[in-house]
Amino acid sequence: MMEELAKVPWAVIAPLIIVQIILMIVALIDLRKIHSTNGPKILWVFIILFANLFGSIAYFIVGRKQS
């Protein structure tokens, strides 16, 4: 197991993990501040948390109501 982890290219994966976490936090903060969304807010929370990078991106593209 440790040998397999040593072979992982962390220089490529670490920035993606950091971007994913930052995008998730920003999406959750925005979801908390916004008054109305396309769909129930609790559904967007689950999508953002469990769909990882794609959930946050989907929230910003589809979930926010355009005024």
TrEMBL record:
Keywords: Cell membrane, Membrane, Transmembrane, Transmembrane helix. It holds the Pfam family PLDc_N. It is a multi-pass membrane protein. The chain crosses the membrane at residues 12-31, 43-62. This is PLD nuclease N-terminal domain-containing protein. Residues 22-64 form the Cardiolipin synthase N-terminal domain. It comes from the Bacteria. It is found in: Cell membrane.
